[in-house]
Amino acid sequence: MEALKNKILNEGTVIGSEILKVDSFLNHQIDIKLLNEIGQEFKKRFAKNEITKILTVEASGIGIACIVAQYFNNIPVVFAKKHDSTTMDNNAYEAEVFSFTKNKKYKVRTSKKYINKEDKILIIDDFLANGNAALGLIKITRQAEASIVGVGIVIEKAFQNGRECIENEGIKVESLAIIKSLIDNKVVFK
Ligand code: 5GP
What we know:
The chain has helices at residues 2-11, 23-27, 32-45, 60-69, 132-143, 162-167; strands at residues 13-15, 19-21, 53-57, 77-80, 92-99, 104-111, 120-128, 147-157, 173-181, 188-189.
C-alpha cells in the first residue's frame, strides 16, 4: 500500500534496529484519511470472505479496527482487554501474551458474551512482530469455537517470525506494509 509506505518513510522513526515508531499517524495521533484507505485495502484483501466480527486488542488496535469495520458493513468490533477492571466480566476467554515492546507478560480477556461459535472473525492489529498478540487473539477465538478468517496487519516486520507462527496455525495473514529491515535507522521494505 503506497500511501502507507510513504507515510512510514516520511514520518516513521526507528528505535534501535527492531522498533518502528509511528506516533504521528497510527499510535498516538491518528490519520483518519489513511485509516480509511487501510479499511478499503483490508476489504479488498478479504473481499471473498464472510466476516461477522473484528477482534483486536487495546489500545492501538481499537481505532484501526473501528474504521476497518465500516468497510465490512459496520460489523461489530470486539477488543480484548489488557487491564483488570471491576467492570470486566468474570465469564471471559483469556490468553497470556508476551509483549515485545514492553518485555513482559500480560493477559488479554474477552467477555464470553461477545464472541460465539457462529462468528467468523477477522483479527486486526497495528504491528506484527513475533506474533504473540495475534496468537493470544487466536487462542481466545478458538476457546469460543468461532472460526478465524484471517489476520490483518497494518505494519509487519518480516525480520521477526510472527507471520510464520500464525501461518503455522493454518491462518492467512495479510499485511499492508512489510518491512525487511530497520538497520542504520533506515526502513527497508520487502
Ligand atoms: P508481537 O505480539 O507480534 O510480537 O508484537 C505486536 C504488538 O507489539 C503490536 O500489538 C504492537 O502494539 C507492538 N509492537 C511490536 N513491534 C512494534 C513496533 O516496531 N512499533 C510499535 N509501535 N509497536 C510494536
